[in-house]
Amino acid sequence: MDSDEGEQRDGISVSMNIEGEYTDVMSKLRTEASGSRLLDPLVEDADELLETVQRINGGTRSALARQIAETSSLSDDPDAVVELLQVLERYDLVTLEGNTWMPGSRLQEVSQ
Fold this sequence. Notes:
Order of helices and strands: EEHEEHHHEEH
Mean pLDDT: 82
Strand order of the largest sheet: 1-2
CATH superfamily of the domain at 38-112: Winged helix-like DNA-binding domain superfamily/Winged helix DNA-binding domain
Distance between the termini: 40 Å
CATH class of the domain at 38-112: Mainly Alpha
Number of helices: 5
């Protein structure tokens, strides 16, 4: 099984590839279950982190964690910031230059 085929159980395989503009991708990730939006906190944290990266024009994990709003689960948690940044990096929304996380090409496109 290829790494991008997904997990296979009982003969069923599921995989997903989401590409597109940031807002389109994030809207596809929103899921409703029993009237609640399960991924809203994740999307809100991702939005907050991307806004912070743009606002301070990049920063280290610690600097970003300090700058994030206290209402975010990422606030003052550099390890959690890096985990989410690594996911966002896959979508070219941020890029790591040395030890500084900078806006990625897609994030720069959206902000223009």
